[in-house]
């Protein structure tokens, strides 16, 4: 039985060999010969003789048929001609083209294509007169017979032949390709499981990832992060940042079960949720270091989510939200263009096509953030010492996260170019730094070069991540401003102390309005002393926060007393029979309202009290408006009260009234109150303008006005008051003569008369 089986196998092999030989070398074609019209062809001697000649004549001198050539032979004593075959192949007189070989025949020739080539459907053919038309072309065996190589092999076409190589993940053992996942572990992708069964490889995705078929990959890649349908929603015991971020991002993770849950996730919905005020950006930690780390985590997670959706949707998109912009492009390496560009709102990216992965198609995307200036303003730059350089770093460009499809972009073969549109008026362009975000800080590692142009700044990097531009600005603070502040506050403290003593000891000034002035001076006295001694006490965070809280309350109290003075003036002029505010109400408003505001502010954001440089209110989350908001409101209300007071005063002055003296006193008090409003209001107006282009000018004006408030108040309410000057004169005289001051008869009588008159006449003081 074995004998006949062997005979059968040998016979089959011989049949295959003979069949292949027959296909490779066809029978010679019968090529048409040139038609003879001017004679008779003599087949015996291959000559063309006239019709009158006898073709049987052996010594005929007729010319040879085309394809033959004349030769001379000796026949007896004479030379006779005969026609021999002309070998066009040896004489190189043939018309066979490239990849074709000439084969001679009697009276002609034909062409045979080299092995692995053919002309049309044949490997042998009769040539034409044009050599270019007689060329043979390569046979693409892999396309004509995809299974020519057999199991687990891949056909690779070569010129005139083909070769069979094992597919990725298979090993050639005795000319047989056997599967082995250990040869190429990443064959199925990073998040997949590779298994070998009977020489075949199967790929399955890990839990939480979904496969997607991509061009250039042998097997589907598990690149899409997904969620299970029965996955339980995590419950947050506390309202933490990570819990909120996970809840937000989970809404934009596709389902692992494509059949039961179609993917309808859109970038527009993602941007709308990301730009909302109550998104993950609004729930970061109060601690600076923790806030910076959380912001970096957001950048990483948002980039991963956008990349996930881009791979899933696989199309070019450009979506712009209120504060953020997403740009997705598809790179086709067959494109003739060498560079690939992408334009965002305030940035543009240029990438070499060689940087794209080895696949024929990949993705290129970016996310441009326009709402991270406040969150990243305190971020340090590695290798940059702000105190040594005496400069402060400020973010002057949007933050742009760049990713390249599903490839590793940690080390690019060619650098990527990023151009940022930067306002060059913000500072010296030479102080700009191209940076990227790395582990809670900015870094310049991997920076190839940077160029500053009229259009902005161009940065070149050897990797992809989140990029930005920092500006090293000269600080507004200088030793001259510090000296002016210290001298001015010292003088103001002395003047405020003198004013408080004057209001308490001068019996002529006793009344509700004097009470308001006294507590106004007390508030400013406490604020100035604490500012002078503790504004830079930043070593202890607790002490710095307490100092900032007291300063907050003291300055708010000063503005509340200023509001009460305006209200008192209005009552004196309009409410004729009720011109006095009770002292308990004055104290409740003057000190109670500021304490309530400070308590609410501390409960809402305790980290807002104290910064890295000063013990004052932080700019984070707009916390400074817990002070500037009430101040602006009080200034506006007082302006309205003073306008109304002046209007009523004008009406009363226009009529003849026996109370002209009283109106004169009210007019004088109104003028001093307006002047006081200007003193306090203008200082903080200059503070607002410190952030304009002429910030240095307003910084000096703010410092001078704010530090000399005590001097201005003492001058308005004490020095300019005639009766107070007379009291000062008596005090100085008494001190000079070492005796107690004696009051004049006018003063004593005035004091006695004030008890019998209305309280309004006591209050005038002019």
Q: Can you offer a commentary on this structure?
A:
The protein has 766 residues and is an alpha+beta fold. It has four domains: 100 residues, Laminin (Ribbon); 73 residues, no CATH class; 233 residues, Chondroitinase Ac, Chain A, domain 3; 263 residues, Rhodopsin 7-helix transmembrane proteins (Rhopdopsin 7-helix transmembrane proteins, Up-down Bundle). The protein is 39% helix and 21% strand. The chain is built from 17 helices and 30 strands. The strands form ten sheets. Strands 18, 19, 22, 23, 24, 26, 27 and 30 form an eight-stranded antiparallel sheet that branches. A hairpin with a 2-residue loop joins strand 5 and strand 6. Helix 9 packs antiparallel against helix 10 and helix 12 crosses helix 13. The N terminus and C terminus are likely disordered.
Give the tally of β-strands.
Answer: 30
CATH homologous superfamily (4th level) name of the largest domain: Rhodopsin 7-helix transmembrane proteins
User: What's the CATH class of the largest domain, please?
Assistant: Mainly Alpha
The biggest beta sheet reads: 8 strands, antiparallel
Low-confidence stretches: 1-25, 742-766
Percent range for helical residues?
Answer: 25-40%
Any idea how many domains?
Answer: 4
Protein structure class: alpha+beta
Tell me what the CATH architecture of the largest domain is: Up-down Bundle
């Amino acid at each position: 039985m074995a004998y006949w089986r062997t005979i059968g196998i040998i016979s089959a092999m011989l049949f295959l060999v003979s069949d292949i030989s027959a296909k490779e070398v066809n029978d010679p074609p019968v090529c048409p010969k040139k038609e003879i019209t001017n004679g008779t062809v003599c087949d015996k001697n291959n000559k063309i003789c006239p019709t009158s000649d006898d073709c049987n004549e052996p010594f005929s001198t007729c010319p040879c048929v085309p394809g033959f050539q004349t030769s001379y032979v000796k026949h007896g004593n004479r030379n006779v001609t005969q026609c021999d075959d002309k070998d066009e192949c040896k004489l190189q007189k043939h018309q066979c083209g490239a990849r074709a070989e000439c084969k001679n025949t009697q009276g002609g020739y034909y062409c045979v294509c080299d092995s692995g080539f053919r002309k049309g459907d044949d490997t042998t053919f009769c040539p034409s007169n044009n050599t270019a038309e007689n060329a043979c072309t390569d046979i693409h065996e892999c396309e004509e017979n995809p299974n020519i190589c057999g199991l687990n092999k891949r056909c690779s076409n070569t010129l005139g032949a083909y070769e069979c190589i094992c597919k990725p993940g298979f090993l050639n053992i005795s000319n047989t390709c056997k599967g082995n996942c250990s040869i190429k572990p990443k064959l199925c992708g990073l998040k997949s499981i590779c298994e070998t069964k009977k020489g075949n490889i199967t790929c399955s995705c890990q839990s939480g990832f979904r496969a997607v078929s991509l061009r250039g990959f042998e097997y589907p890649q598990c690149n899409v992060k997904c969620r299970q349908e029965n996955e339980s929603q995590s419950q947050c015991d506390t309202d933490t940042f990570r819990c909120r971020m996970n809840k937000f991002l989970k809404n934009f993770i596709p389902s692992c079960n494509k059949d039961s849950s179609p993917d309808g996730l859109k970038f527009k919905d993602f941007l709308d949720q990301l730009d909302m005020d109550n998104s993950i950006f609004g729930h970061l930690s109060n601690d600076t270091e923790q806030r910076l780390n959380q912001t970096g985590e957001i950048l990483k997670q948002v980039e991963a989510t956008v990349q996930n959706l881009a791979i899933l949707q696989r199309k070019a998109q450009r979506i712009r939200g209120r504060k953020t912009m997403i740009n997705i492009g598809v790179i086709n390496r067959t494109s003739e263009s060498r560079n690939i560009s992408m334009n965002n709102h305030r940035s543009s990216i240029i990438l070499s096509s060689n940087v794209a992965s080895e696949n024929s198609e990949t993705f290129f995307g970016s996310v441009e953030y326009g709402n991270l200036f406040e969150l990243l303003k305190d971020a340090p730059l590695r290798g940059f010492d702000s105190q040594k350089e005496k400069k402060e770093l400020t973010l002057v460009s949007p933050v742009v996260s760049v990713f390249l499809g599903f490839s590793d972009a940690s080390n690019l073969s060619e650098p990527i170019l990023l151009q940022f549109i930067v306002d060059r008026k913000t500072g010296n362009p030479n102080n700009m730094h191209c940076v990227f975000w790395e582990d809670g800080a900015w870094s310049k590692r991997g920076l190839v070069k940077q160029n500053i142009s009229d259009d902005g700044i161009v940065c070149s990097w050897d990797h992809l991540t989140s990029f930005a531009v920092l500006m090293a600005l000269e600080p507004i603070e200088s030793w001259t401003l510090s000296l002016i502040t210290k001298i001015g506050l010292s003088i103001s403290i002395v003047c405020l102390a003198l004013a408080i003593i004057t209001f308490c000891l001068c019996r002529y000034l006793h009344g509700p309005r004097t009470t308001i002035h006294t507590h106004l001076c007390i508030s400013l006295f406490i604020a100035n002393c604490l500012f002078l001694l503790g504004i830079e006490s930043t070593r202890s965070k607790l002490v710095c926060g307490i100092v900032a809280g007291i300063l907050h309350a003291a300055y708010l109290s000063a503005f509340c007393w200023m509001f009460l003075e305006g209200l008192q003036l209005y009552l004196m002029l309009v409410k004729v029979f009720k011109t006095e505010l009770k002292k308990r109400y004055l104290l409740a408003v003057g000190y109670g309202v500021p304490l309530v505001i400070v308590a609410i502010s501390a409960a809402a954001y305790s980290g807002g009290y104290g910064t890295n440089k000063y013990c004052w209110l932080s700019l984070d989350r707009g916390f400074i408006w817990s002070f500037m908001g009430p101040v602006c409101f009080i200034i506006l209300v007082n302006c309205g009260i003073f306008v109304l007071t002046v209007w009523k005063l004008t009406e009363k002055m226009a009529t003849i009234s026996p109370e002209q003296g009283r109106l004169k006193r009210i007019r004088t008090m109104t003028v001093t109150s307006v002047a006081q409003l200007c003193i306090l209001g203008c200082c903080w107006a200059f503070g607002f303008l410190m952030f304009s282009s002429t910030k240095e000018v307003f910084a000096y004006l703010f410092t001078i006005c704010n530090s000399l408030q005590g001097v201005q108040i003492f001058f308005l309410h004490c020095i300019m008051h005639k009766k107070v000057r007379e009291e000062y004169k008596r005090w100085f005289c008494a001190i000079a003569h070492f005796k107690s001051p004696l009051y004049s008869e006018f003063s004593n009588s005035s004091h006695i008369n004030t008890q019998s008159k209305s309280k309004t006449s006591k209050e005038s003081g002019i």
